[in-house]
């Protein structure tokens, strides 16, 4: 069993390329910028007009994207996958978000040097942490053999969590809109790329399965 169904691999490759292009274009446009762009001003003002009244609530909900919570969710996925003899899922959960977060904090933020107030902001770290985790869960659900209704329900839940985190970051004034766009693109692109690579490796070297622990 692979992480991505065969029919999903070609669209996944296209999406990885698109995500890389979005991050790269944003990095060029906002290199060393210390102010919002026209798109940021338009979207941020619009969102604050609609959701500004929920600012405090959104700030509380933003804690679901804190690193300890994200790390705990991923650790549970890794352990469960190993117990169920799915090292491919464990590898995806361990490597995908780690690469996305590391690329954000160690490479892109220092390289792009876009600032929101006094901190480096491109891409948004909170967005990357939550979206990479949600993308891992979405890939798992996609290949889990669940009913269509259940897959849709889980997908809607993951989308809702992602939207809430992005809204909180924008309405509370932690990031520009384009910082979060880059965070989403980076997260989805990296996790899908890791899934494609893991599938390639496991197809070349079939996974030896052992009976799942009961």
Automatic annotation (TrEMBL):
**Segment forming the signal sequence:** none
Matching Pfam families: PAP2 (PF01569)
Repeat found in the keyword field: no
Q: Which UniProt keywords apply?
A: Membrane, Transmembrane, Transmembrane helix
Residue ranges occupied by any Phosphatidic acid phosphatase type 2/haloperoxidase domain in the UniProt entry: 82-198
| Residue stretches spanning the membrane | 12-30, 57-82, 89-108, 128-149, 156-175, 181-201
Q: Which InterPro entries match?
A: PAP2/HPO (IPR000326), PAP2/HPO_sf (IPR036938)
Q: Which domain of life is it from?
A: Bacteria
Q: What is this protein called?
A: Phosphatase PAP2 family protein
Write down the species: Kutzneria chonburiensis
């Amino acid at each position: 069993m692979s992480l991505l169904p065969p029919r999903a691999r070609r669209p996944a490759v296209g999406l990885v390329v698109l995500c890389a292009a979005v991050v790269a274009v944003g990095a060029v446009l906002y290199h060393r910028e210390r102010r919002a762009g026209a798109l940021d001003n338009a979207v941020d003002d619009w969102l604050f007009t609609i959701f500004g009244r929920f600012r405090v609530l959104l700030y509380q909900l933003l804690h679901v994207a804190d690193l300890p919570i994200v790390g705990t969710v991923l650790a549970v996925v890794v352990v469960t996958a190993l117990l169920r003899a799915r090292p491919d899922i464990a590898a995806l959960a361990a490597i995908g978000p780690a690469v996305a977060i590391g690329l954000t904090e160690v490479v892109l933020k220092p390289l792009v040097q876009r600032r929101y107030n006094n901190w480096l902001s491109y891409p948004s770290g909170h967005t990357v942490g939550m979206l990479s985790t949600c993308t891992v869960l979405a890939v798992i659900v996609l290949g889990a053999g669940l009913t269509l209704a259940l897959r849709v329900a889980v997908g809607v839940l993951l989308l809702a969590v992602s939207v809430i985190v992005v809204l909180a970051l924008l309405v509370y004034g932690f990031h520009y809109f384009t910082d979060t766009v880059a965070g989403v693109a980076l997260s989805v692109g990296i996790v899908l790329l890791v899934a494609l690579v893991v599938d390639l490796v496991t197809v070349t070297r079939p996974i030896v399965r052992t009976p799942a622990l009961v």
